[in-house]
Amino acid sequence: MILLNRIPFSDKLIQTGLHDVDVWLCSTGGAGSNLLKHFLEQHVKVKSPYSAALLTHHKEPVDCDKLNYKAIYLHADPFSILKSVKRRGLVKTNIKKLNNQINLGDSDILLLESLFNQFEKWSTAKVSYPVLCIKYEALYDSLDQIGEFLSIPMDNFPPKKERLSSDIEVEDRLYNQFRSSYEKWKSYPDLVVIEPHK
């Protein structure tokens, strides 16, 4: 993935990436975004080298002047994400993508900080296009709403698979350290459509 070597992405490169798709699918990582991306691509352009390198996990929404543009922010329980990312050996890579910076390290604390920061910015988005924020945990109960948001059929969506990272332990101190942010994430609605900012 050559574009990964161009992190940090410039504003110009970010805009090039945004304009390369019709729907920006951004996620926390470890939230089923590949599953959703592969399905949506049958109906609307969501795949792009820029997305794969950075924009799939970008730290914040960015304005885009493309006509009829939309975004989906797919997020999941941050501690489940930590387990998933650790299982796949992607902690350092995802920290890089979540911050658009290099040489930040690979600590669990930094990954969680990055995830909660991303959630805060996306869940309070103020951009020129609508953003659908959806929890992975509610994905399969919200297929009709996703289809309505994108004006596409959601028939034949792949069946749900059991997550593979349940055997990975998370230290209690991390739950304690991020208790307030975690409670805020848990209390956020399963699905929210944020209308374009005027």
Q: Notable features of this structure?
A:
198 residues, alpha/beta, four-stranded mixed β-sheet, 9 helices, 4 strands
Describe, in plain words, how this protein is organized in 3D.
Helix 5 (91-99) packs parallel to helix 6. This protein is of the alpha/beta class and 198 residues long. It has helices at residues 11-19, 33-40, 49-53, 78-87, 91-99, 108-123, 143-150, 172-177, 179-187; strands at 23-27, 70-75, 131-135, 191-194. 40% of the residues lie in helices and 10% in strands. The mean pLDDT is 92.
The total of beta strands comes to 4
- Continuous helix count: 9
What is the string of SSEs from the N terminus onward? HEHHEHHHEHHHE
Shape: globular
Radius of gyration: 16 Å
Distance between the termini: 36 Å
Q: Show unreliable segments.
A: none
Largest sheet: 4 strands, mixed
The helicity comes to: 40-55%
Summing up helix and strand content along with how strands pair, one would put the structural category as: alpha/beta
Mean pLDDT, all residues: 92
The strand order across the widest sheet is: 1-2-3-4
Strand content: 5-15%
Write the layout of secondary structure elements.
Blueprint: H1 11-19, E1 23-27, H2 33-40, H3 49-53, E2 70-75, H4 78-87, H5 91-99, H6 108-123, E3 131-135, H7 143-150, H8 172-177, H9 179-187, E4 191-194
Parallel strand pairs: 1-2, 2-3
Antiparallel strand pairs: 3-4
